[in-house]
Amino acid sequence: MILQGKRGIIFGALDEQSIAWHVAERCVAQGARITLTNAPVAMRFGKIFDLGTRLNAEVIPADATLTEDLDKLLEQSMEALGGKLDFVLHSIGMSLNVRKGKPYTDLNYEFMQKTLDISSISFHKLMQCAMKKDAIAEGGSILALSYIAAQRIFPDYNEMADAKALLESFARSFGYHYGVAKKVRVNTISQSPTMTTAGSGIKGFKEFFDYADKMSPLGNASAEACADYCVVMFSDLTRYVTMQNLYHDGGFSSMGMSPSLLNFG
Ligand SMILES: NC(=O)c1ccc[n+]([C@@H]2O[C@H](COP(=O)([O-])OP(=O)(O)OC[C@H]3O[C@@H](n4cnc5c(N)ncnc54)[C@H](O)[C@@H]3O)[C@@H](O)[C@H]2O)c1
Known about the structure:
CATH topology: Rossmann fold
Radius of gyration: 18 Å
Largest sheet: 7 strands, parallel
Strand order of the largest sheet: 3-2-1-4-5-6-7
Shape: globular
CATH class: Alpha Beta
Number of helices: 8
Distance between the termini: 50 Å
Structural class: alpha/beta
Order of helices and strands: EHEHEHEHHEHEHHE
CATH superfamily: NAD(P)-binding Rossmann-like Domain
Mean pLDDT: 96
Strand content: 15-25%
Bound molecules: nicotinamide-adenine-dinucleotide
Number of strands: 7
Helix content: 40-55%
């Protein structure tokens, strides 16, 4: 029970496939008490309430692009959980240009601004709101989920590559300030392709999933395994890890070529 007595907020549990869904389950199994949040529109599916009931977690709607929603979420969470927060998972991503099928060389810039606001700037907003309210306990841990397209080119990932690069940069920049002020850690976990609503929105995702699985010596990391890694990062066992982008990808990021992908006939 490495999260015994800890309090946290989990963003982004949409359905059973969501990475955040598994993180929420694993955190509670390890002794944490949590609140769950998602965009009001995501509440319509209703599944998050089932999860909330099962995990005894209050569900608090918040559009992560609105600081007034984030302020309310932080206040209500501290009230529901009885004190400052020890961890937060930002598990939010959405690209309007990808959704509308726009190619990278013909992007709509209004869509792009929305993409960056939802997928990246919301992370800065969350941390700024939390810091102003002093909502995170000393030594707390904040995580966001990223993807290796922030460093390498995966053409079909489109503008989300740039969104993830910004997300990772916010983790480093804010991690400095939060570390100095409160010893709060800020990191991103760069996860393998995972079969979720957000993941399967990318063109050719199934083929790419299989490619990454073959390329990775350990195979693709599952959402459940990602949840385990998040739990470790929220625990006191990693209290000196901050401002890092941590690959959780079965070794994919260190590979150049894999014989298992070559047909030697
Ligand atoms: N699935 C993958 O292959 C993969 C790989 C690496 C990283 N990631 C990242 O993991 C994170 C979670 O994605 P997932 O794969 O579990 O898919 P998902 O679709 O289950 O989760 C994305 C979540 O973002 C939420 N969201 C969208 N707009 C929002 C807003 N304005 N305010 C609050 N929440 C909002 C959605 O409601 C949804 O719950 C994302 O950051 C994604 O980019 C996914």
